[in-house]
Design brief:
Rossmann fold; five-stranded parallel beta sheet
Length: 410
């Protein structure tokens, strides 16, 4: 049986509490630094508790200290923070840092699968360098970003920079704090929450997956392939047919293009030549037919949206030029249309709530193309998709309606 491909090109990790056992050195170092700073400043006050010190992990340090010492003037607060950082660096140079259990083995397993690895951390340049070089994370991690990195003042910016560097959006973010999840979703990525990290009590983190320990990560990510394999088994595609054609449809932001790509990867691993064909490549343009045009959408009946909006003859020609025995995987909207549905041996509809679609699209398109991209989807493309599905209910006109709200699979 051919090996099942791993379907994520990249994994972006948070650092403290996700890869590094920060609790081994931070609390003691912070206490020593704070005592020294209090003495210098002539302050007599109790030290924060261990839980309060750990609540700073994962936050930009200045933000955390402002929360922990709201009564101190900015200069005094900055001195306390600097003393804590000095002691923190001293502990690191003394070998106080360590990877969390299972991290090295997990990073080995991901690299063995050809996955590109990155770090996005709310730390400073010196701390990141120590983690990469002294602790040895550079052995696995190709790229790392921090608050001092050029052009990345926030964690969402760090993740965006890493995705651009890696040249893929088939990625996932792993972290232990709400800010990590927010950075993932701000880029349209699924998030894996490490529940045994340093999130304080009461910080609820909704995510696509929750793991307790790092060794659970790779098996959880492998479930996307199992999920898609299960869909293919249910569809029972006759791969011995001369040129079977599989369709993948659904609303904007449902994940059609990556689902189609991954179907192709799985079939290729089984020895079946495939070609992924995007309906969007055959979109007609012009003020009279542009699917994103208010005038076109408002003036069209739902079933006109495919035949008037797309060059179906061009799509047919593209498929006809494929080598014999190639499975065409067509992805796009409106594939259940009577003009196209009979040409598809099997058709799967990815069902995703519109709120999730908009969140994904905001991270995928709005960051690079501005808010107009999301406005276009909200005003035109989602209503068009909704109207088409009302005219051609997916459960009646497709072979499988698959809940695709979780990009990691079920």
């Amino acid at each position: 049986m051919p090996a099942t491909p791993f379907l994520f090109d990249a994994v972006v990790f948070d650092l403290d509490g996700t890869l590094v056992a920060t609790d081994r050195f931070w609390v003691d170092a912070a206490r020593v630094g704070a005592r020294r700073a209090f003495a210098e400043l002539g302050l007599e006050r109790p030290l924060p508790t261990a839980a309060e010190w750990m609540s700073l992990v994962g936050l930009p340090l200045a933000q955390g200290f402002a929360r922990l010492f709201p009564d101190l003037d900015p200069a005094s607060r900055a001195r306390v923070m600097a003393a804590c950082e000095e002691e923190d660096h001293r502990a690191l140079r003394a070998g106080g840092a360590a990877l969390l259990p299972g991290v090295a083995e997990t990073l080995d397993a991901l690299r063995a699968r050809g996955v590109r690895l990155g770090i996005a951390s709310n730390c400073g340049r010196d701390y990141l360098a120590s983690m990469m070089d002294d602790l040895g994370l550079a052995r696995w991690v190709e790229e790392a970003r921090c608050l001092d990195s050029a052009g990345t003042p926030t964690k969402p910016d760090m993740v965006a920079s890493l995705l651009e560097r890696f040249g893929t959006r088939a990625a996932v973010m792993v972290g232990d704090r709400l800010g990590d999840r927010d950075a993932a979703w701000a880029n349209g990525l699924p998030h894996v929450h490490l529940a045994r990290g340093f999130a304080p009590a009461g910080e609820e983190v909704e995510a696509e997956a929750v793991i307790e320990t790092m060794p659970e990560l790779v098996p959880r990510l492998e479930r996307r392939a199992s999920w898609i394999e299960g869909a293919l088994e249910w569809l029972d595609v006759d791969l011995d047919a001369p040129q079977p054609t599989i369709g993948v449809t659904g609303p904007p932001g449902a994940g059609k293009s990556y689902f189609a790509r991954d179907v192709g990867r799985i079939l290729e691993a089984r020895g079946r030549p495939t070609a992924v064909v995007a309906l969007e490549d055959h979109l007609r343009t012009g003020p009279d037919v542009d699917l994103g045009s208010t005038a076109f959408v408002a003036g069209s009946r739902p079933l006109d949206l495919l035949t008037q909006g797309y060059d179906l003859a061009g799509l047919d020609a593209r498929i006809a030029t494929l080598p014999a025995g190639t499975t065409a995987i067509v992805h796009g909207p409106f594939l259940a249309h009577p003009a196209l549905r009979p040409k598809l041996a099997r058709l799967v509809h990815l069902a995703v709530d519109e709120a999730v679609c908009l969140r994904r699209l905001a991270g995928r398109d709005a960051r690079s193309h501005g808010p107009e991209a999301l406005l276009r989807v909200r005003r035109h493309l989602l209503p068009a998709s909704r109207a088409f599905d009302a005219a051609m209910p997916p459960r009646e006109h497709t072979d499988l309606v698959l809940d695709a709200a979780n990009a990691l699979g079920v």
